[in-house]
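So, read this over?
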Amino acid sequence: MRNFIWIFILMHCCTGENVWGQEQVVEALKAEKEEITVDGNLDDAVWQKGEWITGFTIIGESCKQAQAQTVFKIAYDGDQLYFAAKMMESCRLKIDESRKDGSVCEDDAIELIIDPYGDQSDYYVFAANAITKLDEKWSLNGLLRELEWDAEWKVATKIGKTEWAVEMAIPFAELELTERSLQDWKFNVIRNRHAVQKEEYSSYVPLVSNLMEDRCFALLRFAPDVFKKHLWNIEGPCGYLFEVDTYGTDRLKGCVNVENKGSGACNFNLIIKQVNPKSIPIIAISMQEQLCDGEHRAYDFQMPIKKQTPLKLRVELVNIHNPQEILRVERWTLNVDYEPIQLSFVEPNYRNTIYSTQNLSEIKFNLRFTLNPELLKNNTLRLQLLSPNEQKVYDKVLKELIIEKVPVHETYTMPIEELEFGSYLVRAELLNENGEVTFTKEKEFEKLRPVSYEWRVDMDGNLRKNDEMIIPTGFFEMTSEELEQWKGNYSVIFQNLNSILSAVDANTYLDKLEKLNAYGVIYPYPDESFINSCVEGLEQSLLAKEKEAIREHVKSLGRHPALMAWVLAFSPDNETISPQRLKLIYDVVSSEDPFHPCVIVIPPNRSMGEYGQIGDILMPITKLSFLKDEEPSRLLDLTSRQFDLINRLKKPGSTLWGCLQAYNQPMMTEVATRLPNVDECRSILYQSFVKGAKGFFWYHFSQFKNSPEMEPIVQFLVHELKSLQNAILAPNVPVDEKNEDLLNSDMTPTMLKRVGNDYYLFAVSLSGEKKKIQLRLPRMKDAKVLHVVSEGREVSLAEDGTFSDTFDPFEVHIYSTKAIGGITLQELKEKLKVERANKKRG
């Protein structure tokens, strides 16, 4: 959608002695309600106040003044933020995009970027060319676009002989304001100029390259308490389900949680609307309620709905005394299955497949009815396990269960000890009083023969080879010759993701890895057309000849003992592989080769949400730049936040691997950068595992070779991982509610494991400040001390299992009842210090 804006490259301000410059401050103008008419004329009284703000500089050219200047003002009333700008221009404007949310920024356009929280968490982009507009919400420091967010706001433009003007009105209710919004906001204004032969991109805050780094936003200041009435929190829908009522009408049932965060006592209407793809309401319900300051309440609702995939809802909280005053807006997108009976396997959980190493004695599956419970009365449920005949028709009943009283939701089991290898089907039938089948749901599963090259993901997300758990670690794009130099340290190598290996070359590559007792992750594609582009006009499909080509390639390599997994895509939207096409590719590969998982590598500046339901292993890359005058990096918690997000997006039965890309690349920025230190690398590594990763990689080896300082750090971390492998792969120890607060917090996530009689607690500080933190280990009350792994020290335990420890910014501590030897962090740091000194003298 945007051309250069979303490239994740370090940037900096060019003002002042500090590398980031002094933050500019803009005082927003106070407007009276209904004083501003959004028409592009900029003749309202508020725009006549004060001086126009200007001084735009060219992005990427050492803060050179823009040839065509821009001036702007910002105003507000109790309900809306207003923005007015005049762009000096004597040339003819480029105006090609007329679609809302289209490629607006490839035309002459202006962008207002606002962070209402001032904490580089989320921000909003409002952009306009001369005829249409675009709005976006970005999270994770601008690395993830929230696809479902679509605000209702106004914009008007006017084109003159020497300038063109834009006027915007943005409701505060659309911005999800919090208590942090009562302080200064952050903002920037960007101009994209295409009217001249050489395109010019300019910014109010001087930037070198990337436009979305919060450090280079200006401050936006308002009068105190302007936003208090908009401080509401709406969450939901909780526990929602779909059903068909006795009249055959589709209905949605659920619960909405509403909290008054400081708005004062308020009577309101809670309005839930179903909207069409153009955000036009088609059905709505309303509830009149009241909440005082600090109160929160859960509201049950049910509403008729029209069938729609996905189902889009808009929730409004409106002042009951002034229906024009909207206090808060939320949007929900529900991906729902409208089938009357929903059936999903619990075991087998991975690919609906029973592997020979699993030794399952029964299958387990969830059954949910989306019918009205009244319709289930006097009905009978028949569950069958069937095998196919020679014509592959499932007609032989192996097991049958009859349920007289049919629950809306239940988990069922069926014994399968005597099942032979092959395909089977579970069928659920709802029978009416006359014994007639009214609704049916079927789902297949397969029991596989034993092989010597079985790789699968287990119930805990661990990767297993022939039932042995491993932590895959290694590099992207490492040759077999380079691997030989590091023999025994890395177990897995991703092939070069910018090229495709023929079947012959891939076999040769895997042969070399086999000799080194290593494994490879390679593409399942016979040529580069599968990763570089789609067949024109078939972007969401897969041709029969393409399916056959993939099958043949997979078949020729699938039995190689050095093959671990298939990588389906690296940044799939950048490779123009649509989610629909990638899902078809996954179906072909997983069907042809059920013994190797499929990996999708998703850099965080791509749309995770579109691809989170595809593949068996999702791999978000943590991509950071580290500044010489900033240690540790204040963005180090990015890993945790992107894992929190992708954990919500991934499909059941899939797992996660972590990856770090962080190298000194001075050609990309004028700011002095550095390599990450050992504490920063260790923080990113264990943030990944605490948040659910089951493997970790470094991207990529060619950059690593040019950064020899990283070698001892990565070697240390790999050896530490190996010493802790059994603990990391063990199931999480359950924590009771009374200990949850002391064992986990937003700023100190933890992971508690048990191996035999020994316990391991992994704790990661996400705070940029040094802190003393109290923790409690509920299952270790008999222990007197805990050993701190790789630190050569101990901490004392109180009788109730609590202990305190000091965490430096973003520091990791690993506590164990078992002493683990090896080089300590301090010894490694001393070694690195000596090497740096020797290098400096040399």
The longest helix spans residues 825-841. The longest strand covers residues 232-244.
